[in-house]
Design brief:
The chain has about 280 residues and is α+β, with helices and mostly antiparallel strands. It is built from seven helices and 13 strands. The protein has a domain of about 190 residues.
Length: about 280
């Protein structure tokens, strides 16, 4: 449990740099939106960079980690949710509170202002919290899609999965196609955890917890249909203190080529805070 209080003072201490690889255990579909539909292409294309190479947007990965933490911490309930947006018939809900020890809000940030709760009266929040966790776009490691894999792909780097949605009344089939990054592909990810006070140091454990939750869940669309199973490995963790930036100090390597289990064990260790001194 976080030891943050209303009187906790924020003073920059350093940054934890977590890097590693995301391996696709099943095909991965993170949609590009309907605006990118091409003639002869799949109905649901994956998001690609300017060079046509698939990637995992940092916002998609960050949002999924937040959602999983909200669920496991019993925060994805109406009394803990506010409307992030309500337009065009769609409602987006997200957790938000003014509690100083709310680790989700500390990790992902919060802004003061008027918020409408899903249940209960709207409130005027006063707490502003800078986000501690930054998640960058994860580029595809192109060489991870081997020549043997490419022989069975519909495109140079992706496959097309055909699906049928069946009308429950008429039994009429509605075929559709879904573009996916194939199983076995790997992406390189990078996350930065800002440590703005001593109480922030245990937040690394929450990040590791969210990553382990995601391994038994799904990233992207179609998770309930088998898409989006991923694994995290080859992890490296480095500590860059305030002196690293101000005086050209040395980076401290805490993990190299590690697993999520090793990351959790490090974060839970009684001497972890001392390693960041």
């Amino acid at each position: 449990m976080s030891s943050h209080t209303a009187s906790t003072e924020l003073t920059f201490l350093g940054k934890l740099i977590l890097e590693g690889e995301i391996q696709c255990r099943t095909g991965l579909h993170i949609g590009a939106g309907k605006g990118s539909l091409e003639i002869g292409g799949a109905d649901n294309p994956v998001v690609k960079d300017a060079f046509g190479i698939p990637y995992i947007p940092g916002s998609s990965l960050r949002g999924r980690l937040r959602s999983l933490l909200e669920q496991t911490m019993a925060l994805a309930v109406p009394s803990e949710l506010v409307y992030l947006s309500r337009r065009k018939g769609q409602e987006v809900r997200i957790h938000h509170s003014d509690r100083p020890d709310d680790e989700v809000c500390i990790l992902f940030g919060r802004n003061p202002g008027y918020v409408e709760r899903v249940t209960g009266e709207a409130i005027q929040t006063a707490t502003a919290t800078p986000a501690r966790l930054t998640v960058y776009d994860a580029p595809l490691i192109v060489d991870s899609i081997t020549p043997q894999m490419r022989e069975n792909l519909d495109d140079e780097l992706t496959e097309v999965k055909s699906e049928n949605a069946v009308d429950r009344i008429t039994s009429q089939a509605n075929p559709r196609t879904l573009e996916r990054v194939p199983s076995g592909a790997r992406f390189r990810f990078r996350m930065v955890l800002d440590v703005l006070c001593e109480e922030d140091k245990p937040l690394l454990g929450r990040v590791a917890e969210a990553l382990r939750l995601l391994e038994d869940d799904a990233l992207g669309g179609g998770g309930s249909r088998g898409n989006g199973r991923v694994a995290f490995d080859n992890l490296t963790l480095a500590w860059r203190s305030k002196d690293y930036y101000a005086k050209g100090g040395e980076e401290r390597n805490l993990l190299s080529g590690a697993t999520l289990a090793a990351l959790q064990q490090l974060a839970a260790g009684g001497d972890f805070a001392e390693k960041l001194a």
